[in-house]
Design a protein that fits this description.
heteropentamer; A alpha+beta; B mainly alpha; C mainly alpha; D alpha/beta; A: alpha+beta; Rossmann fold; 2 domains; 5-stranded antiparallel β-sheet; 18 strands; about 30% strand; globular; B: MetI-like fold; two-stranded antiparallel ribbon; 2 strands; binds adenosine-5'-triphosphate; binds magnesium ion
Chain lengths: ~350, ~280, ~280, ~400, ~350
């Protein structure tokens, strides 16, 4: 109950082709995340699925039925907006009840569902408040509550956490993941935060300028990014990309090594450089290293105990088994070695 | 969805406009039997060449300009004051906005009789009290008096809009300017005033629309004497006092042209400000 | 500014603001006071402020002379009716301008405003003839339509600016939740824009209440509102300051009281998009 | 039936509104009043009559409108009034001014001329005496100067200076007649470039500057009435109806020291500077309620109505100047200003108002449609002279130009 | 040039004492970060230093001179606001020039400084744009540029990055750090994001309800938090706090172990539990573990290769040398063992 298939979907705004013909299948029950840089068309794609934008061409099939021309309310989907889009003049209860009221559901059933959703989302105490009297996280939950009661075949989320502060974001991220575990309903989730994508997704769809760059599980993308774009988009801090002679040594135009795959020493190593900024997080330390002759900056992650600082000489050794090789057109080359 | 409003307004504009245009090319004297045939541009020529025409344009501009200047300047100052912390802000605001609720006729009557009357007006008591010769407001200072009355009516409107605009100014900007070494006056000049530009243009636009049509105030106070005959009033005289519909209609067309010149000028400013 | 203000500064602000507020309010206050004086006290030299024999005599005279209740009711019906009708027509127009803007939207908006610049006297004749044809001379419905048309541009503009502040996402959420256009407007848009609508309604009530040209010229006995009522007091014979004051007070009191009670709404909403 | 009646907001009309129950009782017709200030009223009824709007069943109009409208066939001719109404009782000057081609088109509610009202006490103090009959302007000027005591806030003379053809315009026109001036010659050529006009305006301005109240340029009937009632005027030349107000002790502080005299004239000229006016009731042609309207007009302008007012308010307050019989009534003879009012009315001749012949009818106006507009403009120019904003010569020059222009526009 | 000393500074808003008497010294050239939960008085403290709020009591000494009564502009400090507080009607150039214009500096010198600041901040191409036409990060830089040109003796930042998205925030964080390295001017920086605090600060001041809870270098706070508040505030994910018998074993009321100091195994260990949510970041995996009998959730960090999922049984072993002990009043107890 919630399989969404896009067939050659195209979206143009006037002259601008925001989504070139695109095929995508979202399986029932899957947590799919759309990631990509700002303006790449994530929201547009989501809104096409929701029916809030009309497709210029192509078909959208939901649960086997062609939904291309259906109005949003008829598609059986629920959406959670970035701004939450709560109705500020209605109480939490009324907000949650609104879609049911629109569907003309009887009062008893409405009350039952509200109670259930409020219980699940810890909102029982706030049902009579107005959204203005809630914290960001609570508002977020109300928005989810409003989506849940419709018992949709899929949830659509458009950057639902981007308005929250860092600490709350982590909490809400977990809540949504747990909700997905509990409901096992299809969820399509848009973000441009790769950490969210990695931690929440069953399947990540990486978009660039309306094109799908790669589809796969988080760890697939982390381990075998199909091109330099995906490679540098997935993983934090970013993968170091090195061109030139050092890449040539691996028969590649570009090689990529993730910061966590470089060993650090103050005495010896394959490469050397000077510490620029050292970010001591306690648990880890990130060094931004200059003057390596490889790239402008090489970022490496060391554990919390290393105590080099700004200006110190540093030696780096990449782990050979996790070096990614890319050709001149940015595509991944067949692995020399097995990926660990 | 826009259609009903647009169609209605289009009708409201076009029907009278067409009829006005139609009349303006006619010799139309109701008291002499009405329609006396087509006369081409005669009414237009007569209207502009009449000795009252250019002075009326000047009067119109002086009135509109004077009121605009006074209401915006005082409006800004008043808005700044009302934005300050004080006791009884609500009641003060009530006092300040009250003139806006008063009918133009009533306010003209009140000013004319209770304040500007040469014999019983409070102003003449006041002048006499200070040993000065009372001013014959409505004859010797007719335009300033008129501007004063109209400004009094419109000051609340300007103040309210400017006040909401001032309140919307991000206080961090003012603090930033303070950190940057700008004293109060410069903060006003460089930060507050530019922030208000949009509100000011809205005030100017809306008020101009209403001020161009000012009628009751002149009718009640001076009846168009002593150089207070605006274009609107001149048309009133032609249509209703002289009962020359053709001539008045030609005047109406001129008024529309003037209004549109002013409008285009204003819309340029406001339209630009509405964008960003 | 968050910075604490010294009590002294606050006291100065308070004194200054109250002084200016009272100055601005004074003409109205004076009118109200005068309405309780005898004619002789009204023109006493020097003027008396509070210490005189208060009398209701003037109100008695005015009540006896004119059917105040009927004028009042007509004013309420006409101002209320035209505002209501205007809002009903303007909501869809403003909705489409705000949420489905086309390239011409701003032009249409400004064009609508420009229709307000038609000089009323210039088109009195055509409109009068039209009203005779339609048989709505001296009828409330006729005035309601005219005043609605006059104020429609203002209503549309104000609503447009309030609607524009409503995030589109909320309307989309409503659409996802199964609301049709009607439900969207009734359940979501209107309640959310309620403060703005309230202030629009207020402003237009005031404008319609005080409109003095059309209400005077298109009515006779049946539909005449308070503007016509005051027109019978604007120059009676002999000593009349006190009676004039009583009549003026009666003409402005209802809207003044309404305005005062709802000044918060008015102040909050009166932005015309001057504030983003 | 319910009649809608447009009327002016002066005292007599207001009084009539209070008495309408009598009409309703007698005829069964109801009455709705539309009471408006004079200028608003004039504009309102004119619009309605010219467009045949039919908003009113009875209109209060003046001597200026009636002949013009009657000529256009817009008014119901009042040639079949009832026997007991006694049309012939109407003062001939009034009937004449309200007729066109000998047909009466509006019935006079009251009529007025203008006369001098003066303070007998102040006159005495000044050591002067008002001559019998019409005094000369130079006497008036002299007396005014003598009575003036600015410290005591007494102005020797109060006259209308307010712009508007029915305000200051009426006074200066009537005055100009007594200076030998006229508005138009027989060929409709404006005459402001004549010496007579120059003299009129110069004399008026000089006298008022000497002895008039401050700000007289904006004073009209009401302002002068208050001034006079407050004892701030030595003399006042204005409508005869004012007499009842200035002698009413309720409103007037000088009620028992008012004398009356005929309006003045210039030496050697046998026209007095008084005007003639009537507020009359007319019925727009095409009204659905002609019968009821006629009944009303008859009621309001009848002898019975006069009796009714006298009963309720006393003889001093009856509408004057309309009927001969009133002045023959014994009760009315006691009213101090009655005779002077009648004399003034009788001394005005609308058909022959000026020294030199004119092509128009009307004492202080010319009964042509263009007059109201022109005279308003002209009187505004004059008011600007009174306010010291331009010279007499400038004003007359402008008046001449704008009158010529307007007459041209009207096709003369 | 930029030593700031607060002596018994008190701030009351009406009745509410937001800052109780507080002593603090910020050394010249130091990068000091104020952290603490929302509403703890960070902004107020910064504004007191800036002169945007008047102190209720106490003294503020800047560079040895009493600045308590001085107006903001006279203190020689520059401030960067959370909302950037750019002047929207002025071009970038004018924005940056504004403080110099106010100081009446001559045009040539203004131009020189603008050019220099714009160069340093990569703003040269945008000098003629209005702030409305800039991205969040660029606006941030303009705000900094406006601060730099005044060559202040210290910079004050109030949550300058909180309006930026995650990726930009990381970038800007580094830019500010590098700027500090370059200028070596005192900087006082307010944030409630502990990662920012850790990575940027020379010295962190942890505030709670206007009180200073601890002052020290990031690693000092990470390693020896003075109380449970600091312990759970510093470090991400949060330190696990365990009470009860397990704590008693260490003679403490509460013990704290950071997620990165717990070893994970699917076979054996000291404690056991069931995996709740597993967040796979590629480089690392965070497990949220339930049913341990120790606390509701224990969070642990494992490296990227561990592949346990939801519902799996898991075994945990804390590293004994980095167990923090706290007494019943929440204060740190003397270490049993040396801290590594
Ligand atoms: N209504 C519209 N009209 C014209 N262009 C649009 C419209 N909506 C979006 N676009 C364009 O389509 C492209 C994709 O926009 P979209 O909002 O889908 O991006 P996004 O990936 O969601 O970005 P972000 O991460 O910033 O939200 C952008 O270039 C945008 O400018
Ligand atoms: N002008 C003021 N009047 C009254 N109380 C105030 C004022 N400004 C701040 N406060 C109070 O002082 C306390 C500290 O506020 P402050 O803004 O310094 O907190 P903060 O640590 O910056 O919080 P945040 O992280 O949310 O920005 C809060 O409880 C706040 O409500
Ligand atoms: Mg988006
Ligand atoms: Mg803060």
């Amino acid at each position: 109950m919630g399989r969404i298939v896009l067939e050659k979907v195209v979206k143009r705004f006037g002259e601008a082709e925001v989504i070139p013909p695109l095929d995508l299948t979202i399986e029932d029950g899957e947590f799919t995340v759309f990631v990509g840089p700002s303006g790449c068309g994530k929201s547009t794609l989501l809104r096409l699925i929701a029916g809030l934008e009309d497709t210029t061409d192509g078909r959208i099939v939901i649960d086997g039925k062609d939904a291309t021309g259906l109005p949003p309310a008829k598609r059986g989907l629920a959406m959670v907006f970035q701004s939450y889009a709560l109705y500020p003049h209605m109480s939490v209860r009324k907000n949650i009840a609104f879609p049911m009221k629109m569907a003309g559901m009887d009062q008893a059933e409405q009350d039952r569902r509200i109670a259930k959703a409020a219980g699940a989302l810890n909102l029982t105490d706030y049902l009579d408040r107005k959204p203005g009297q809630l914290s960001g996280g609570q508002r977020q939950r109300v928005a989810i509550g409003r989506a849940i009661v419709r018992e949709p075949s899929a949830f659509l989320f458009d950057e639902p956490l981007s308005n929250l502060d860092a600490a709350l974001r982590v909490g809400m991220r977990m809540e949504i993941s747990e909700l997905h575990k509990k409901l096992a309903t299809t969820m399509v989730y848009v973000t441009h935060d790769q950490v969210e994508a990695m931690t929440m997704a069953d399947k990540i769809v990486v978009l660039r300028a309306g094109h799908v760059e790669q589809v796969g599980s988080p760890l697939e993308l982390y381990r075998t990014p199909r091109n330099t774009f995906v490679a540098s988009f997935i993983g934090s801090p970013k993968m170091n990309l090195i061109e030139g002679p050092e890449a040539a040594k691996h028969d590649a135009h570009t090689i990529g090594i993730r910061p966590e795959h470089i060993d650090v020493s103050s005495e010896s190593g394959l490469w050397s450089g000077v510490v620029g900024v050292a970010e001591h997080l306690g648990s880890d330390t990130f060094f931004h290293i200059h003057e390596t002759g490889l790239a402008e900056t090489i970022t490496v992650r060391a554990d919390g105990e290393v105590s080099l600082t700004h200006g110190d000489k540093i030696y780096l050794t990449p782990r050979p088994d996790v070096i990614h090789r890319f050709s001149a057109d940015g595509l991944r080359m067949k692995d020399e070695l097995a990926v660990a | 969805m826009m259609a009903p409003a647009v169609v209605l307004l289009l009708g409201w504009m076009l029907v009278p406009l067409t009829m006005t245009l139609y009349f303006s090319f006619k010799k139309y004297l109701p008291l002499r039997g009405g329609d006396l045939g087509w006369v081409g541009f005669e009414n237009y020529v007569r209207f502009v060449t009449s000795s009252a025409f250019w002075p009326s344009i000047q009067t119109t501009l002086v009135l509109v300009g004077g009121v605009l200047i006074i209401t915006t300047v005082l409006g800004i100052l008043l808005a700044l004051l009302l934005d300050q912390p004080m006791w009884g802000q609500g009641p003060v605001r009530i006092l300040v906005i009250a003139p806006f609720f008063v009918m133009p006729t009533v306010s003209a009557l009140v000013w004319k009789n209770f304040f500007m009357d040469a014999n019983y007006g409070l102003f003449s008591y006041l002048w006499e009290f200070f040993g000065a010769e009372p001013i014959q407001w409505l004859s010797q200072a007719s335009m300033p008096s008129l501007v004063l009355i109209v400004s009094w009516q419109w000051l609340p409107f300007a103040t309210l809009i400017l006040l909401t605009a001032i309140q919307s100014l991000d206080s961090e900007q003012l603090e930033a300017a303070e950190m940057d070494g700008a004293p109060a006056l410069k903060r006003f000049w460089f930060i507050i005033l530019p922030h208000l530009s949009r509100a000011i243009s809205v005030v100017i636009l809306i008020q101009t629309i209403f001020l161009l049509g000012i009628f009751a105030e002149i009718f009640v106070t001076t009846g168009g004497a002593f150089g207070t005959k605006t274009l609107t009033y001149l048309i009133y005289q032609r249509v209703l006092e002289s009962q020359n519909i053709g001539l008045g209609s030609a005047g109406g067309v001129y008024a529309i042209i003037l209004a549109n010149i002013v409008a285009i000028f204003l819309m340029r400013i406001v339209g630009k400000n509405l964008d960003n | 500014m968050a910075r604490a203000v010294t009590t002294q500064r606050k006291a100065i602000n308070t004194a200054l603001a109250w002084a200016i507020g009272l100055l601005i309010f004074f003409p109205i206050l004076w009118t109200i006071l005068t309405s309780f004086k005898t004619e002789a006290t009204a023109i006493a030299d020097p003027p008396v402020f509070f210490f005189f024999d208060w009398t209701l005599e003037n109100y008695g005279v005015v009540m006896e002379r004119s059917n105040y209740g009927k004028f009042l009711w007509n004013s309420i019906a006409i101002a209320g009716g035209s505002t209501l009708l205007g809002v009903i027509i303007a909501v869809p127009a403003a909705w489409s301008m705000a949420f489905v803007p086309g390239r011409r939207t701003k032009d249409i908006l400004l064009w609508m405003l420009s229709t307000k610049m038609l000089p009323a006297v210039g088109v009195l004749y055509p409109i009068y003839l039209l009203f005779i044809k339609l048989g709505i001379l001296d009828s409330k419905i006729g005035l309601i339509i005219v005043l609605m048309l006059i104020n429609l541009p203002i209503i549309v503009w104000m609503l447009y600016t309030y609607f524009r502040e409503i995030p589109g996402e909320i309307l989309e959420a409503a659409r996802m939740d199964g609301a049709g256009l009607k439900e969207e407007i009734i359940h979501v848009l209107t309640p959310m824009a309620l403060p703005g609508i309230a202030s629009t309604v207020l402003l237009n009530l005031i404008l319609a209440w005080n409109e003095a040209f059309w209400t005077l010229n298109l009515t006779a006995a049946e539909a005449a509102p308070l503007t016509a009522f005051i027109a019978s007091y604007s120059s009676p014979e002999g000593l009349f300051f006190a009676k004039l004051s009583a009549a003026s007070t009666m003409a402005i009191a209802p809207i003044l009281i309404l305005g005062w009670f709802s000044q918060k709404q008015l102040v909050r909403g009166l932005t015309f998009g001057a504030v983003k | 039936e319910t009649l809608t009646i447009a009327t002016v907001n002066n005292g007599d009309m207001i009084r009539m509104q209070g008495l309408t129950d009598d009409f309703t009782e007698k005829t069964g017709h109801d009455v709705e009043w539309v009471t408006l200030e004079e200028n608003v009223l004039r504009q309102r009824v004119t619009t309605d009559i010219t467009t045949k709007g039919g908003a009113f069943d009875v209109m209060t109009i003046g001597m200026y409108e009636t002949p013009i409208w009657g000529a256009n066939g817009w008014l119901v001719p009042l040639d079949d009034l009832s026997e007991e109404y006694d049309v012939d009782d109407i003062l001939p000057a009034m009937a004449g001014g309200l007729s066109h081609d000998g047909t009466l088109y509006a019935a006079p509610f009251y009529g007025e001329s203008s006369m001098i009202m003066y303070r007998t006490d102040l006159m005495e103090e000044a050591g002067l005496e008002m001559p019998e009959g019409s005094p000369t302007w130079s006497f008036i000027r002299e007396a005014a100067a003598a009575m003036t005591d600015r410290d005591a806030d007494i102005n020797g003379i109060c006259l209308r200076g307010k712009a508007g053809w029915g305000e200051g315009g009426a006074l200066i026109t009537a005055m100009s007649n007594s200076f030998g001036a006229r508005w138009f010659d027989e060929n409709w050529q404006p005459q402001f470039d004549t010496d007579a006009w120059n003299e009129t305006l110069t004399f008026f301005t000089e006298m008022m500057n000497e002895s008039g109240p401050a700000g007289y340029a904006t004073n009209g009937f009401n302002e002068n009435l208050s001034l006079f009632q407050q004892g701030k005027c030595g003399m006042w030349i204005d409508a005869t109806v004012a007499a009842s107000f200035v002698t009413n002790p309720d409103d007037s502080t000088v009620a028992d020291s008012v004398g009356f005299a005929l309006a003045p004239h210039k030496e050697g000229i046998d026209k007095n500077g008084n005007w003639l006016w009537a507020w009359a009731l007319g019925i727009p042609a095409g009204t659905q309620k002609e019968e009821a309207a006629k009944a009303f007009v008859e009621w309001a302008t009848s002898k019975d109505y006069i009796e009714l007012v006298a009963e309720n308010e006393g003889w001093a307050n009856v509408p004057p100047g309309a009927r001969t019989s009133l002045y023959e009534n014994e009760n009315y003879k006691d009213v101090p200003f009655a005779q002077m009012t009648l004399d003034s009315i009788l001394s005005a001749d609308p058909n022959n108002p000026t020294v030199d012949p004119v092509p128009y009818v009307g004492v202080q106006f010319a009964a042509i449609p263009e007059f109201a507009g022109i005279a308003t403009d002209v009187s505004q120019e004059f008011s600007a002279v009174y306010a010291g904003q331009q010279s007499v010569e400038e004003a007359l020059e402008k008046a001449q130009a704008l009158t010529t222009d307007a007459m041209e526009a009207a096709g003369y």
